[in-house]
Known about the structure:
Helix content: 55-70%
CATH class of the largest domain: Alpha Beta
Number of domains: 2
Amino acid sequence: xxxxxxxxxxxxxxxxxxxxxxxxxxxxxxxxxxxxxxxxxxxxxxxxxxxxxxxxxxxxxxxxxxxxxxxxxxxxxxxxxxxxxxxxxxxxxxxxxxxxxxxxxxxxxxxxxxxxxxxxxxxxxxxxxxxxxxxxxxxxxxxxxxxxxxxxxxxxxxxxxxxxxxxxxxxxxxxxxxxxxxxxxxxxxxxxxxxxxxxxxxxxxxxxxxxxxxxxxxxxxxxxxxxxxxxxxxxxxxxxxxxxxxxxxxxxxxxxxxxxxxxxxxxxxxxxxxxxxx
Length: 278
């Protein structure tokens, strides 16, 4: 796309990824390695280019044992680690390289980190994958326990209700005090919107632009815009945010009701949130 703000960054990431596999210490294991471009994400329209390139390198245990330190000790001890490169050349973006031996376990859970990893894998661009790992990872990222989708949505809905109910502080407290409540409400609604449509959600830096492309996100777009303006001190926006908070929850509940209309956690979220977790 000609006006894609991520196009140049994506091409830079591809070139730097190729260089990583062409030079020591990873060149000796390139044939059996998988390298994924995870940021900018693939197939996602963003209004801005991420400030950091992110690559995910997957190696086999034998490769980890043959690497020099600090790579070898970090991988053998923890199974994964993250390396950062901050080039002196201002034309090059910072690079985050995640190196992993076995990414499947993190993809099998349904906590926040797992949901972010699932989304990342599904929106990754394989730069080098002769063993065909990426389709296997996508399949693993798309597989949930039988009750997994409802557990994800239920937890995110309860978080969203609590966060939106706390939005009263915006406009009544200094911006620094209101910022956590506004950020929590925006993030909770965005995670819920993404997870309801796709089963997972991106990391916090991409949450809002991705959520805006969902059904819930489109319904709440103007309120989320007002929320940002309210934190910045816009008095009319602050009044609109407060006046529409309960309507926001009704709009979200209407969408969730397509699948979960009879669930007590949807109808009585405050009471349900007080129950002991199971």
